[in-house]
TrEMBL record, chains A, B:
Source taxon at top rank: Bacteria
SUPFAM superfamilies: Recombination protein RecR
UniProt-listed PANTHER family: RECOMBINATION PROTEIN RECR
Zinc finger (C4-type): 57-72
General function of this protein: May play a role in DNA repair. It seems to be involved in an RecBC-independent recombinational process of DNA repair. It may act with RecF and RecO.
Domain Toprim as annotated: residue spans: 80-175
Signal peptide region: none
Protein name, UniProt field: Recombination protein RecR
Pfam families hit by this protein: RecR_C, RecR_HhH, RecR_ZnF, Toprim_4
Family per similarity comment: Belongs to the RecR family.
UniProt entry keywords in alphabetical sequence: DNA damage, DNA recombination, DNA repair, Metal-binding, Zinc, Zinc-finger
Length: 196, 196
């Protein structure tokens, strides 16, 4: 297949997607070319359009096509609460619960010293400015309950707690619908400590 | 994220890739937008270019940008041998062995009655015309050793054996480097029958 340069270029480009190796990229390329050329065109257009149109919201830093995203502009939301999440996917999970009506700040990452991601890389400065706008009274730390997420939450609370803001963290505990026998011990220990 | 239409469109488009669900598509979209916008542009261009430029070789049916692929045009190859494979990936595997110097016919699929893929869908007519061009003397059936691959090989050999062509199938047997203890019984049985 020495003359298949367009094919080779496509396979190499697909490999830039996270979690896609040579075999998957080959399978994707063959599938699109053999069975779904309209899909290839659609994906091509969606990629170009997204890369060109999508930027970060000026206020909450999430992906948006506007200067300020629809969530931040929504006046029915409680501007005194600011929920800090790692990614738009996390924000979307919180939104789907319907249990939160405040605003968000999306870090677009987490502190990860081992990968060289420091406070500057995830825009903590921008978060601090946003949290100290005078309207925000409570900052809810909803970073993940992983080592990096916990470290990120810790650094943020260290930075903010001297400024008179009410800082909270999502509750840790036993997941809904689970049986104690199968829950990991760390979770049970936390649920005991945080019992109410 | 109600205003994130370009993002939603990108996620939906990524889901058309085989093996990519909602979560993977979201992760891919976020990765490209957050960490690899040049990658998104590259992939966009590669997709559009491939979908536009790549067609099927007139002679062997593989993907190529030309009318006839480089392999078919290579005069040093033995035109009396025609190796039938399911996909360009299979062809590429055979090529990498360096053990075959004949020509190929790429089915771009396999017979699969359960999925509604019949002889017409994988271009058997085209294969028969190609095999009966007068130059081809041996047809090597190198479809996969799966149920569908075997059925495909069977149908091809039924269609061609009355026409005076020498029909062969890749040898079945114990893989190089394997220990009998760990080889499946079907393979050992075939290796016994086909012993030489």
């Amino acid at each position: 297949m020495s003359d298949a340069n367009a094919l080779e270029a496509l396979i190499q480009a697909l490999r830039r997607l996270p979690g896609v190796g040579v075999k998957s990229a080959q399978r994707m390329a063959f599938h699109l070319l053999q069975h779904d050329r309209p899909g290839a065109q659609t994906l091509s257009y969606a990629l170009a359009n997204a890369a060109q149109a999508i930027q970060h919201c000026e206020r909450c830093h999430t992906f948006t096509e506007a200067t300020v995203c629809a969530t931040c502009l929504d006046e029915r939301r409680d501007a005194s609460k600011l929920c800090v999440v790692e990614t738009p996917a996390d924000q979307s999970a919180l939104e789907r619960t319907g249990a939160y009506k405040g605003l968000y700040f999306v870090l677009m990452g987490k502190l990860s010293p081992l990968d060289g991601v420091g406070p500057h890389d995830i825009g903590l400065k921008k978060l601090f400015d946003r949290a100290l706008d005078g309207t925000v009274q409570e900052v809810i730390l909803a970073t993940n309950f992983t080592a990096e997420g916990e470290a990120t939450a810790h650094v943020i609370s260290e930075g903010l707690k001297a400024r008179g803001l009410h800082l909270t963290r999502l509750a840790r505990g036993v997941p809904v619908g689970s049986e104690l026998e199968y829950v990991d011990l760390g979770t049970i220990a936390h649920a005991l400590v945080d019992r109410r």
